[in-house]
Specification:
The complex is a heterodimer of chains A (about 140) and B (about 140). Chain A has about 140 residues and is of the alpha/beta class. Helix content of chain A is about 50%, strand content about 15%. Chain A has seven helices and four strands; from the N terminus they run H-E-H-E-H-H-E-H-E-H-H. A four-stranded parallel sheet of chain A has the order 2-1-3-4, sandwiched between helices. Chain A is globular and about 35 Å long. In chain A, about 50% of the residues are buried. Chain B has a single domain, classed as Rossmann fold (3-Layer(aba) Sandwich). Chain B has a four-stranded parallel sheet, sandwiched between helices. In chain B, helix 3 links the parallel strand 3 and strand 4.
């Protein structure tokens, strides 16, 4: 890893997204989270590595613990990211499940890009609201 | 696609957002699947393995081969797949195997890096048809 990477400024809010691609809502978590990053910039939000959390990488765990707020996003009722966060004892200040909370339809299997533009906009709006709300 | 609608090759991509190469695995995986014929490969849910989601475990068992795609040398996707008791047919690491430099998440990666990553995944899948699935001799 480069020194430049090590010294990169930490964002105010961290986002753990599912990014699972067996269904549309899983993929949508990643797409919507990166759209929020694009709109707010890297000083405001940064993405976490759920895989590193599940694999037990200490540095990635510590990095997310040190942020002002951590938002956890799942796509479907399996709620895998929430379970991983709870199993590892990682931080979670806010939680969004696109299926349960936004009623976005899960389309699959293996149709990661089957979400609609309307679904994307609703997902982005929900993440923006959570990121920008006071703790 | 096999007759049970499971892709032949199960791709597990890290899609971590803390580095450029992690993010690239997710995007390159999607593009690789798009370039391949339908049913050849599908991106599975990495999060479903440590949480033992039945649908993810069952579909993974039904796939003929597993290919992991990691961005950085931590190889988290590979570790998660192996910890779940599966044996990858092929592992790809974008830094170690493709020579792509790891940087901060907002670091630029261009069309060339994307092309290299996609080619590595597509080649692994195309070459897989010449090899029997792991464990097929049991």
């Amino acid at each position: 890893m480069s020194q430049e990477h090590e010294d990169a400024e930490k964002p105010r809010v961290g986002i753990f997204y599912c990014g699972g691609a067996m269904s549309s809502v899983g993929e949508l978590t990643g797409v919507a989270a990166f759209e929020v990053l694009k709109r707010l910039g890297p000083k405001e939000v940064g993405m976490g590595c759920v895989a590193a959390l599940a694999a037990g990488v200490p540095k990635h765990f510590r990095t997310m613990q040190g942020l002002e707020k951590v938002v956890v996003i799942d796509g479907c009722p399996n709620s895998c990211v929430r379970k991983i966060v709870e199993q590892t004892g990682a931080r979670m200040d806010a939680y969004i499940n696109f299926g349960k909370d936004l009623k976005i339809k899960k389309i699959g299997p293996f149709k990661p890009l089957a979400y609609s533009q309307e679904d994307l906009e609703r997902a982005v709006e929900a993440i923006l609201n959570v990121v920008q709300s006071t703790p | 696609m096999s007759n049970n609608n499971i892709p032949e090759n199960a791709l597990f991509v890290c899609f971590g957002g803390m580095s450029n190469v992690g993010t690239l695995t997710g995007l390159a995986g999607l593009e690789a699947v798009r370039q391949l014929e339908p049913g050849k490969a599908g991106i599975f849910c990495l999060g479903g393995l440590p949480t033992e989601a039945p649908i993810v475990l069952n579909k993974t068992r039904a796939a003929q081969r597993i290919i992991t795609v990691d961005g950085c040398p931590l190889n988290c996707a590979r570790k998660i797949v192996e910890q779940a008791g599966f044996v990858p047919y092929k592992t790809i690491n974008l830094v170690e195997d493709c020579g792509i430099k790891k940087g901060p998440p907002q670091a630029y990666y261009g069309a060339e890096e994307m092309q290299v990553a996609v080619k590595a995944i597509v080649d692994a899948i195309k070459n897989s048809q010449f090899s029997p699935p792991p464990g097929s001799a049991d």
